[in-house]
Amino acid sequence: MSKKNFTGGLNSLLGDQTDKPKRGRPVTQFKEITKSSQEGTKENETRATLIINEELLDKLKAIAYWDRVLIKDAVNTALQDYVDKKNPKPRPEEVKVKDQEANQRLIKNGYTARLPKF
Fold first, then answer.
1. What is the pTM of this model?
2. Of 100, 80, 81, 79, which is closest to residue 91 (Cα–Cα)?
3. How confident is the model at residue 38 (pLDDT cuts 50, 70, 90)?
């Protein structure tokens, strides 16, 4: 058996490896995005940032781990149970409008959230 010459590198062994197009259907998003916090989320979802007790978060992560669910799903279940139990009255429309106007003013003025200094 004669020795083979591999001076061409790995590409000579594998052949020409071109980038193949992704398989499957492209992601189509039909939901109307009204806030930047909705970008990249599913229908009826939005991003929210919360400050939470570390022990509570650790317990929540444990629940999600043992139930084999995402943390966001464990949070949604817990919050839904709490809201169902409390059965709150809806906020007045003028309060919702004020919140939206305040958020728009903050965005317009370039406000970015700042963490408190400790």
1. 0.56
2. 100
3. confident
pLDDT at 39: 78
State the amino acid at position 13 in one-letter form.
Answer: L
Structure tokens at 63: 């629940």
Largest CA distance in the chain: 87
The residues, ordered by sequence, that sit 6+ positions from 11 with a Cβ below 8 Å of its Cβ are: 17
Residue bearing tokens 């992560």:
61
- Amino acid occupying residue 85: K
Single-letter residue type at 113:
A
- Residue carrying the six token digits 């919702």: 96
What's at 94, amino acid-wise? E
DSSP 8-class letter at 47: -
Neighbours of 41 (CB within 10 A): 14
Cα–Cα distance, 46 to 31 (Å, whole number) = 12
- Cα gap 65→46, rounded to integer Å: 23
pLDDT at 72 over 70: yes
